[in-house]
Amino acid sequence: MKQVFDSIYIFGDSFAHNPHVETSELFASLVANYYKLPLFNYGVGGYGNESIFKKIYEVVPTIEFKNPLIMVVYTCYLRKEIYNPKGKRPRNIDPEFFTENFVKDYFAYYYDEKTLLVDTLTYINAVQVLLKTYNFEYIEMFSNSNPESTFYYNSSTLKINSGKFLNPPCLHKICPDDRFELHNDGIKNGHFTASGNKKVADLIISTLDQYYYS
């Protein structure tokens, strides 16, 4: 097998850096191990697309490898961030950090659904422009399977279909049953189990083999 990439970098939310399985069982780790490449995981739990873009913007200029593969796991458009009054790190607008009335008032005053969608689409476009500027190969996917993912992928508002999306682009559709319960309510809508990560890794590997290693 010819070697195309010399490293893998992954950015995204907690689905990129799943706290419920061993590091070696993460899909990014499985992909890196398959190709025998070093992995740099910048996934952060709770990150919205704004923070994902900012992390990529911070890290990409520092990459010293010549041919890295960048994997990006975008998240739900509802994760709109403002500065956390309990710390310096921006947090999602969530009653865990802000009162419920504050959250409702903030969204009602500043945002409607369309604004939030266009806002996150702008960050996705910014990621693509940045990676193309550095001439880095990349593959994109979504951590959620909510209706907004279809909007992302087929948007006529902002063209984001770069041809680099995993197919299917929503990870949850790959292995809907291989997930942990999020609220101990019997509903499997949390992070991927080890078998779920394996299925995601297999799809990524088959995609990369088709486009880069065949």
Summary keywords:
Rossmann fold; alpha/beta; five-stranded parallel β-sheet; 214 residues; two-stranded antiparallel ribbon
Give a structural overview.
- This protein is of the alpha/beta class and 214 residues long.
- It contains 7 helices and 7 strands, in the order βαβαβββααβαβαα.
- The chain has helices at residues 27-35, 49-59, 100-110, 113-133, 147-154, 171-174, 194-213; strands at 7-12, 39-43, 68-74, 81-83, 90-92, 137-142, 165-170.
- The strands form 2 sheets. A 5-stranded parallel β-sheet has the order 2-1-3-6-7, with helices on both faces. The protein has a two-stranded antiparallel sheet with strand order 4-5.
